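Hey, quick one: can you model this chain's 3D structure?
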Amino acid sequence: MNLETKTTTKYTPSPIHRKFYLSVLWKFWLCHGLAFAWMIFSIILSIPWVKDLGELVPVPVAIAFITGIAYIPGYLNAFMVASLLFDRQPSFKTLHPKEPVSILIACWNEEKGIVSTLQQLAKQDYEGEMQIYVIDNNSTDHTAEVAERLGKELGLNIRVIFEETPGKNHALNKALQYVETQLLITLDADTLLHPQAVRRLVSRMKSAPEDVCAVAGAVLVRNSRENWLARIQEWDYFLGIASIKRLQGLYQGTLVAQGAYSLYLTDAIKEVGGWPDAIGEDIVLTWAFLERNYKVFFEPTAIAFTDVPTEFSHFARQRSRWARGMIEALKRVKPWEQPRIFTRYLTGSNLVMPYLDFVYTFVWIPGLIASFFGIFWIAGPQTLFVLPLALLSNYFLYRYQKGVFRELGLHIRKNRIGFFFYVLCYQMIMSPVSVWGYIQEFMQLRRVWK
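Sure thing. Here's the predicted structure for all 450 residues.
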């Protein structure tokens, strides 16, 4: 998110007063019960809709359409909102860790972007040693020279490594051979860290159980003022992606420790064979951790800021790549092979995503267009009743994020127009793009890192 820092405050965990304790397993089943009740209520309300649509298409087809438009999305959203209301982030056990950490930055033609990234690393309040590896992945510009020069100017411990084979996984695996620390962080070359980011990420790892092998940081948008597309993505990162990661973190199975900014146990990465040769290498890597019964956490106060695509073609390429990465992970690690019930559910939820995106793209969007011409077979005036629920859920998420930002001395910039289009229109952009990604993966089209 395009945000401004007012002050940098020291973290002081606030006590949480609880009248009773619910285990994560109890929260899991209780939230499913609430979501199921909501879905039953939705089914009852939709009976007239099913009957009307059943006069145009066979009733089973009508039910399949409405299931993809309303029942399953409603269940998933209700489960998420209920889970977030139960979520209580544990306090840090240590506030100032000093363990040495390696930071891996894979680069391809990043001589401009790497400057700000390294400058922000120099501003970290982390008290431990930071060994920074800049991996030049066959760049044609002066990325390596700029990194070496900045390392000397900023007093950073930087080592430049060259990897000729194109691909982010090859670059990271090359650097992995040199890492000697127990902890390592991956950071994209265009991603800027909040001054407390490394400390908070390591603090979460040091405060976590021994079976936690990775902690995903919170990545927000830096360039939200560039155009309408960036403004919408600002809310996606701030509310959508962050909320999904909070949900997954509650159940100890964050599904993507994103390569843009995450912390890992070095030995765990080596145990699974390093970063895989996949377009979604961070997704497949994370699922390999979960398959081995490791846990993956999320730390919402360890914040980084990244530039998001401002051209639709670049945005579509990025999000279709994410969709392909999800399919790759599903093919490599089957949800039913996950050892824990939480991760079986979280990864299994992705099995229905292609179905939902196809129905949304080829049924809901055409139905919405038809409604403007007085044809209300799919979308009608009653559709407006879903807006209060969407606004209410986003309000709860906004309030939580606002508390996180207050703790970090940040404030949220106003972006009402972006929020309006995020709530009303974003899924109409995302679903077709995701469908294109599924088709690309099915046809095994060429992979592109950038």
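One thing worth noting: The chain has a mean pLDDT of 89.
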